[in-house]
Amino acid sequence: MKLYKPDNARERALDEEEYQRLLTASSLHLQRIVICAYETDMRRGEIQFLTWNKIDLKAGLIRLDGTDTKTGKGPAVPISAALQTILVEIRQELRVGKVAAIDGRVFTWKGRPMAEGWRTAFLAACRRAGLTALHFLESQHTFVARKGRLRRNASLISAAGR
Predict the structure, then answer these.
(1) In angstroms, rounded to a whole number, what is the distance separating the alpha carbons of residues 149 and 83?
(2) Whole-structure pTM over 0.85, yes or no?
(3) For 39, how many CA atoms within 13 A lie in the half-sphere containing its CB?
């Protein structure tokens, strides 16, 4: 007898209202992670292990190595204005000593690299926001869906202007 794996592919994407509810229900350190996920196509591990040496604020890019990614490719990830604000805030906190840089990691909690505890915080924030059955991976679906909407809107505006 051949056993088949269930089709558990998820295609859910947060809409803007759900995203705002999630941010409101999140602590500051979790908000920063959620914003990074929402504004980039980075996976959970890529965000969790992101270090300052990968960030080029002047060029507006996060330069990942192939060893940092699941695909083995090292993309240059654009930094949006919202993410730039978060990264500058964290940098300033490092300078004034509010946050200690551990292993050069960008996202820390109480001065320590984030382990799996942030996942519990994410699920609790989802419950508080009334978002059931939400998985962190779906932030990628949200990014892709949001970028698709922005491209379609830009195409419509461009076509209307002709």
Answers:
(1) 19
(2) no
(3) 21
Which burial class, exposed, middle or buried, applies to 23 when counting CB atoms under 10 A from its CB (0-12, 13-18, 19+)? middle
Amino acid (1-letter code) at residue 111: G
Tokens of 111: 């001065």
One pLDDT digit (tens) per residue for the chain, 162 residues: 455 454 445 566 778 888 899 999 999 989 999 899 888 878 888 888 899 999 999 999 998 887 666 666 677 889 999 999 999 999 888 888 755 566 788 988 777 777 667 888 888 999 999 987 777 755 555 655 665 544 444 443 344 444
Query: Is residue 134 within 8 Å of residue 142, measured between CB atoms?
Result: no
Domains of the chain by start residue, with CATH: 16-160 (1.10.443.10)
CB burial of residue 160 (10 Å; 0-12, 13-18, 19+): exposed
3-class SS of residue 77: strand
